[in-house]
Specification:
single chain; flat; about 40% helix; about 150 residues; mainly alpha
Length: about 150
């Protein structure tokens, strides 16, 4: 009814539906995009077909994984830990501890590492500012040989 393939047209190139199936149809009411160069149009349709195939394989793999392992969501990749409610936990990864340093759940070690992380982060931010500022501000005299 809506997408009838005309044997005279390329596969996926439906009349009045335009590029990527968007144009004057039951949902949209605007003129479809036209490509006067047939080679460009064929290249774009080939890319659409290749991307569609890749999406179908990815979806099949997710359905298979969901059926065998039980989930394809974040719970599979990011198990919950003892510090999920702490400051700095952000979506989509939650509490990020790739080396497993907080796996033992020791609160004292966690607090010490968090304090060290904050200290090092602040020092790095100051270092970045110290690296960027000289590009915009130069002292006169011998401290800036380029300016004499």
């Amino acid at each position: 009814l809506f997408f009838r393939q005309d044997p005279k047209r390329a596969p996926g190139d439906f009349e009045n539906y335009g590029f990527l199936g968007v144009g004057k149809n039951f949902i949209f009411n605007f003129d479809p995009i036209e490509f006067p160069d047939a080679q460009v149009k064929n290249k774009k349709l080939a890319a659409e077909i290749a991307n569609g195939r890749l999406a179908m394989i990815a979806l099949s793999a997710m359905v298979f994984q969901n059926g065998t392992v039980g989930t394809t969501g974040p719970a599979m990749w990011l198990p919950s830990g003892a510090f999920e409610g702490e400051l700095g936990v952000q979506a989509p990864v939650g509490f990020w501890d790739p080396l497993g340093l907080a796996a033992d759940g020791d609160v004292d070690n966690f607090k010490r590492r968090r304090a060290v992380e904050l200290k090092h982060g602040r020092i790095c931010m100051l270092a970045c500012v110290g690296y960027i500022i000289p590009e915009y501000f130069r002292w006169p005299g011998f401290l800036s040989p380029a300016q004499g």
